[in-house]
Write a structure and sequence with these properties.
Number of strands: 10
CATH architecture of the largest domain: 3-Layer(aba) Sandwich
Distance between the termini: 9 Å
CATH topology of the largest domain: Glutaredoxin
Shape: elongated
Largest sheet: 5 strands, antiparallel
Number of domains: 3
């Protein structure tokens, strides 16, 4: 839990060093509240600063940004691992108002995010007038690339999940002789985000979500036909009782996962590919924990990660970090 914030006008930036969770506008990120201290820490750790200007307490837009964007476990973990996060309240007096003035930001404003090098220089133009997770995800990826850092595989997969969440992806269904092999074959196409096995009119089929910016439907159908799968779009798709069959045969079934992660893990398991780039550090730590099978449930991988993550964390703890 974060530090309690005194009433407006009474805050001491050095005493209230961390603030999160008690403010819906801040989501689950552990925010430093000392701007200059954050920069000093960034220089010490050679990390960029993610500087949030946020209205606290705030309007519905501010609350939604905190609850929709800053609570996804993989977004929160990436920010904690790769950034020094600092929050400035744009409707408070004192030290907050001084930092607000220094950056020329408006008071009583919707969320604005700036990205600073350890020396305080702006790495990219700020994120403003956009309050969705896709926008923040794109900026974070660009910041890491600008610093010559590799974007972790699990974070790239999160970006693909967000395409589904925000209605950018498209759906297609293919009849397959065997949907277990159908899932793994289709998942190898770079535009495929998720796969699910099931039935249409008693026929085995795989329903996919794909990125239409990466492939046309015609080209995707051609790829599927070359693999022996016939397009069969229509109503009545019924999910199989054992989705992601190969993943279900591994310890990964006990992990909280996103749909894109479970699709790629289901491909990696039978091909004995490394899982390291598909999982976050916390997921990797949980997978190595001998208590995992006893602590989790076999269908945890299919649950909403926003709910399954805190459930497993309550049972196993946040490994290697303060809970």
């Amino acid at each position: 839990m974060g530090w309690k914030i005194p009433p407006t006008g009474q805050s001491d930036m050095h005493e209230t060093r961390i603030s999160f969770r008690e403010h819906a506008e801040l989501g689950d990120v552990a925010w430093l509240r000392d701007h200059d201290g954050g920069l000093a820490l960034a220089a010490q750790r050679d990390k960029p600063v993610l500087l949030l200007f946020q209205e606290v307490p705030g309007c519905s837009t501010c609350v939604r940004f905190g609850q929709d964007v800053l609570t996804h476990p993989l977004m929160v973990e990436l920010i904690a691992d790769r950034f020094v996060p600092v929050a400035i309240f744009n409707n408070h007096r004192g030290a907050d108002a001084e930092i607000l003035h220094r950056y020329g930001e408006a008071s009583w404003n919707n969320p604005v995010v700036r990205f600073l090098a350890p020396d305080g220089a702006e790495l990219l133009p700020k994120l403003a007038d956009r309050y969705d997770a896709l926008g923040l995800h794109e900026k974070i990826g660009a910041v890491l690339e600008a610093r010559g850092e590799e974007v972790p595989g699990y974070f790239r997969l999160l970006g693909r999940d967000l395409l589904v969440d925000y209605g950018v992806s498209r759906s297609a269904t293919y009849a397959t002789p065997c949907f277990w092999s159908g899932e793994t074959s289709l998942a190898q196409h770079q535009a495929i985000i998720t796969t699910d096995p099931g039935f249409i009119a008693g026929e085995e089929a795989v329903r996919v979500q794909y990125d239409p910016r990466a492939v046309s439907r015609a080209d995707l159908d051609a790829y599927a036909l070359a693999e022996g799968f016939e397009p069969i779009d229509g109503p009545g798709f019924a999910l199989d009782d054992e989705p992601q069959f190969y993943l279900r045969k591994s310890l990964g079934r006990f992990l909280p996962l996103t749909p894109a992660q479970r699709t790629q893990l289901n491909l990696a398991v039978p091909y004995r590919s490394s899982l390291a780039d598909l999982l976050s550090p916390q997921q990797t730590a949980w997978l190595a924990d001998p208590r995992l099978a006893q602590a989790g449930t076999e269908d945890l991988y299919r649950a909403d990660i926003r709910k399954s993550w805190p459930d497993l964390a309550a049972r196993l703890g946040i490994i290697g970090k303060e809970g």
